[in-house]
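Running this now, will post back.
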Amino acid sequence: MSDDDQPQALNAPLVDVPGRPRGSTEAVIGAEVQGNDGKFESSQTLEALAFLTAGLRAFGSADVKVSELFHLVETALTDRVGDRCAMWQISRDGAQMRIPSGQPSPWERGLPTETNWIPITGHLSDLLTVRQPIEVGIVSDSGFSTSRSPDARTFARVVPIWHRNRIVAVISVVRDSPRAMFSADDRTILDSIAERIESTFISRDVKDELTSAQSTPIRRDAGVAISEDLFNRLAPVAGDIVFRHRFGSGTEYVSAGVFDVLGYTAAEFLADTGLARRIIHPEDRHLMVGLGETHEPFKAPITLRTVTRDGSVVWQLVRIAAIIDGDRIIGIEGMATDITTMKRAEAELNHQARSDPLTNLANRLTFSEYAERSVARLVRHPGMMGVLYLDLTGFKSINDTLGHGAGDRAIVTISERLNKVTRREDVVARIGGDEFAVLMPDLANIGEATATAQRIIAAIETPIDSDGQEIRISTGVGISVSTNGTVGQEEMIRQADTALYQAKRAGRGRWQVFHGQAGTVTGPDRSDTGSAMTFLPDLVTAGTLRAAFAAGDLRVHYHPIVDLSTGEAEGVEALVRWNHHDLGMLSAELFLDVATEADLLHTIDDWVLAQACRQLAAWTEQHHIRLGLSMNLASGRFARAGFTESVLNTLAANDIAPVMLTLELNEPAISDLSSAEVQQLEALSRAGTKVAIDRFGTGAASLRTLRRIPVHQIKLDSSLVADLGATDSSVDEEIVKLAMQVAQSLGATTTAVGVERVEQTQALRRLGCTSIQGHVIHPAESPETLAARFVDGRLMYQRAVGLRAV
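Update: finished.
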């Protein structure tokens, strides 16, 4: 048949390809629609849809031919949703079409109505290409134009019908009207009709497959073979992976859809007997254990994770049936449904229920659950845990003066800082408003909790920039501890809250430990009139410190100083610790004033230097490692007669060269050095010992003051490097550059202390800093713990400082 014999309307120019998705039409068809404006009549449309819906239900449940379905659609729609309507069937290859026999032509008399197929040409082929509805306009009996032509008097809309991912038919609706084309409401109605027809095709498929499944005999070979034809027909309808697996010989069948879900072909499963087991996530393989031993696992679907070819995880709901030979289960067969989207939605909902929406921290419920588990674990495995409770002083004024938006941003900033200054295993929670809590499981001693409290106070007191305005907030921290699970989680939170109240009464920036019948332990005193650490009587006093020193309760821990260019420790700083029988391991700053009161400060300095020198000599002999030694000396130490000789004699006694020792002096104390102290430092420098300025950036020493003494190293205070590596840290980088220029002018190297993150190390390396100290490596450790890290005479931290390990 020639192109001249084609239905003329289908060769009309393509004038509109709407991109509007199909959707609900209830609001459209229920509206008051007037017929004289060119739209479908509302009452007629409802009548057509009711008639069509009833007929489609009959088609889905009875043995009705496709040609009868087409006739049903035409009858339902003609004169109700258009002046004429026809269904055009499309061949499987998309190259031919036909009108069911006996149906009238929608266009002109004399057009073919036989059942034979005719080629598709003209703009019907355009519809199959763009795969969306098209509209045409007719201006005369033999001419066609676009809707913009004022002479157009007849219009047609052709809508594709989809099934099994291809166009199986088109429905054409013709209307005679002087108005331009079809309205948006008309198009929505026709799209809805097409959806109902498509749903009928799918329903009919499912009915056919179920009927086939009931009537098709399952062929068995040696008791296990099953009709693959049935599997292949059921799988596309169900949207699942269908499989059969025989114990001992592997996969015998898997539907082709497995490739779309897992990235493996069916042939790969058949060839590799172990693939079916390997794709199951290692943590879920236990769910499949014992399938061949009992019927129990087959009573309910199994939810498990599978691993795709690219390593991603897919959740599947697996329905399994047993293949039985006599009284033995010799295999399994069933379906696996991809439920990853559902699982992700469940996880997101669970996360929302268990976390604070603003900060993404744990909420009160989650915190209580974690605390309860930690207490239960302590009952089984004796140890110690802690709870820190804090709120924010000055936060309300932010909301009142800058608005709640600024308050929210401040809360988020504080939550980020809390995560940075706590341990990886700690749980940080926002309890509500400006209240936070930290759960610290597996505490070695109370000292770990108090050290964390100090870091929290310092982090929160660091000013926050809010759109150019500086926000200052302070806090107090209440601490409660439980040993061996003797205190429940609710009581711990209550105790921490009580300790917080006492800490805030004691002053700004204080932490306080709830200490049972003895009351509480408080520190540090941050008032402007002094810097002493204060404790309640009988816990940390001059007498208890003297007794502890005599009993050997002081310890020396070592904090690595790491070269930023190599990642290797170039030395260690010796730090004194008090292993308090009640409070655990206390850092030096918590008993510095008490040591002064007890007149033990210089004695402890001498003892620490001697202990550290002996330890370095032992490491050198046992592990063939050579490390420099740094030590911070108390103010006034250099004024003692014979100080230089005492230091050099201690080094010589342990065969340590003076060049391996660095003596640290706090910057604020430099201005107060006497001439005698300067002379002692110069004498030590001439002997080879180095001098470092510690806490640089916290004092007011001028270059002239710094030049009074020999300076070999400047240690940048943690406050100068805290925000390096952040999104906008340009100002902080400029400050660090200025400090490094001071070091260069003195001929000194620079060491940054208090470094917590790899981003900081990368920024410091870029700026030319020499070395670092901080928790990014690890805290100060006992000599035994540190020695365990030695490898071939070296102490390496390449990964910690952002370098690739060699």
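The mean pLDDT is 77. More later if anyone needs it.
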